[in-house]
Amino acid sequence: MSSSLLVVGQAATFWLPPNASTFAASHDALFYFIYYLCIIFFIGIVGATGYFAWAYRRKSEDQVTSNIRGSHKIEIAWSVIPSIFLIAIFVWGFQGFMDMSNPPGNAVEIRVTGQKWFWNFTYPNGGNDTTLTVPANTPVRLTMSSTDVLHSFYVPAFRIKRDVIPNRYTVLWFEAQPGRYPIFCTEYCGKDHSNMNTYVNVVPQEEYAEYMAGLGGCADGETLAECGEAVYNRAGCAGCHSVDGAANTGPTFQGLYGANRPFADGTSAEADDNYLRQSIMDPMSQIVQGYQPVMPGNYAQQLNEEQVNALIDYIRSLGN
Question: Count of domains in the chain?
Answer without folding.
Answer: 2
